């Protein structure tokens, strides 16, 4: 038996995480399946699930790989450290695979989720993944039951939304259901003009860029940084940060007909 096969699973998983998959699908992980039953188990239980469609030669091979890998992993009934799913959907069969696989992972639990699927409606179960610590969403639609059911993301620390349509109430609803949230960033999101967060004790950083926000009203005594980027000729938004005694504010504005940004900074109160 080779010495690597005798290592504890968590050390072997760390070794597997060092494989470079930036230029293509994780071929080396797939090849390891045939080495032995031990390596088949290790690759099956590898808790980092990374699926990016443009790394595959065909759409069919991508969705087959997603379905096979997630089914094999979730069969072990263990949570995932990370799920990255970067794709687009053209057919109902592809939608079925994405729905089925994503729900399987969310049911078992995941600590970090990054998903980019244009116009895809996220499943309602996403609102109740108690171990989720980091959530990054690009171009998806938020769960349909968001304003009907309570959000229970009790471990979420980091939230990033880009090109996601939201309204004023959604922001308050999400933050109220994420009591440990420390960093909240929004970019190119439309549908809201007010960013309001009330009574949040753990929020430390808020970033808002390239939106039409007009009013920022935050009650978070531990907020240390607020940055607003891409403000248009209307000027910076109205700020209400009366309880944010520790906050430094950075506002970047691109004036009309000028190429450079103007920078506005307010330092924390003494």
UniProtKB/TrEMBL annotation:
<dbReference type="InterPro" id="IPR032675">
    <property type="entry name" value="LRR_dom_sf"/>
</dbReference>
<dbReference type="InterPro" id="IPR036047">
    <property type="entry name" value="F-box-like_dom_sf"/>
</dbReference>
<protein>
    <submittedName>
        <fullName>Leucine-rich repeat domain superfamily, F-box-like domain superfamily</fullName>
    </submittedName>
</protein>
<dbReference type="InterPro" id="IPR055357">
    <property type="entry name" value="LRR_At1g61320_AtMIF1"/>
</dbReference>
<dbReference type="InterPro" id="IPR053772">
    <property type="entry name" value="At1g61320/At1g61330-like"/>
</dbReference>
<dbReference type="Pfam" id="PF23622">
    <property type="entry name" value="LRR_At1g61320_AtMIF1"/>
</dbReference>
<feature type="domain" description="At1g61320/AtMIF1 LRR">
    <location>
        <begin position="82"/>
        <end position="232"/>
    </location>
</feature>
């Amino acid at each position: 038996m080779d010495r690597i096969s005798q290592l504890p699973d968590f050390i072997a998983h760390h070794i597997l995480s060092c494989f470079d998959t930036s230029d293509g699908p994780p071929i080396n992980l797939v090849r390891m399946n045939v080495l032995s039953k031990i390596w088949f188990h290790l690759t099956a239980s590898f808790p980092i699930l990374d699926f990016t469609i443009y790394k595959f030669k065909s759409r069919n091979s991508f969705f087959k790989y997603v379905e096979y890998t997630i089914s094999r992993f979730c069969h072990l009934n263990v949570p995932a450290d990370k799920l990255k799913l970067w794709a687009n959907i053209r057919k109902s069969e592809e939608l079925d695979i994405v729905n089925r696989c994503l729900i399987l992972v969310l049911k078992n639990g995941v600590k970090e989720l990054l998903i980019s699927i244009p116009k895809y409606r996220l499943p309602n179960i996403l609102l109740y993944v108690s171990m989720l610590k980091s959530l990054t969403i690009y171009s998806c639609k938020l769960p349909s039951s968001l304003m009907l059911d309570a959000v229970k993301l009790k471990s979420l620390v980091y939230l990033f939304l880009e090109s996601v349509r939201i309204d004023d109430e959604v922001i308050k609803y999400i933050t109220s259901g994420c009591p440990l949230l420390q960093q909240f960033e929004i970019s190119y999101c439309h549908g809201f003009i007010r960013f309001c967060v009330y009574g949040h004790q753990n929020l430390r950083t808020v970033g808002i860029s390239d939106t039409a926000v007009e009013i920022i009203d935050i009650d978070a005594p531990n907020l240390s940084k607020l940055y607003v980027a891409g403000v248009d000729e209307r000027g910076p938004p109205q700020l209400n940060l009366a309880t944010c005694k520790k906050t430094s504010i950075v506002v970047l504005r691109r004036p009309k007909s000028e190429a450079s940004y103007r920078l506005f900074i307010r330092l924390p109160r003494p």
